[in-house]
Every structure is written in structure tokens, then in C-alpha cells.
Amino acid sequence: MLIVAGTIDVEPGQRDEFLAGRREAILAALREPGCIEYAFSADAIDPGRVRIFEKWESKETLAAHLQGMSSRPQPAATVTVLGRDLLQYEVSGTGPLGS
After folding, report:
1. pLDDT value of residue 72
2. Domain 2-90 carries which CATH code?
């Protein structure tokens, strides 16, 4: 399993617009083969930060998702992305918290 986690920073007054603009892309990703979870959410402290969390079955399904994103037409950008910090983590096992 792969996890993608990180942040995207936008102007604080544009965060809601950014999140609303990602809605259809999020729904599309959730329908892709191998997508277990895909979420963009507002940070509870920083008004310009968006948190990203994704779970994918494999490197191959994530690669297919990323390739599909690059080949799809993107809506005109009305929100300026100030920065991003995204990392992928390869997970070899899982279990309940505290065990």
C-alpha cells in the first residue's frame, strides 16, 4: 500500500475556492482502480493550508492516477498555489492504533 500525504498552501482567502475546485477531481480519483482513500481538507490552524491524504493499493495504481491527471484537461487556475509539500510512503503493514 502507498500513502500520499502532505500540504498545499494557497492564499488564505482562496482556500475555500481551491477546495471547491478540487471536488470533481476528488470524486473522479475515488472511482479509479486502486484508490482506497483520497481527501483534501482545510487545515484547522493555518487558514491558507490544505491537507492531502491518499491511500493507493500499489505504486502502479498511483502511477496510473498521476499519468491520468497529466493527460486530463485542467480547469483554468483561479487560485495561486504558493507551495506544496507532498510525500509518498510505502507501507508494509497496518494494525490498530495502540497495538
Report:
1. 65
2. 3.30.70.100
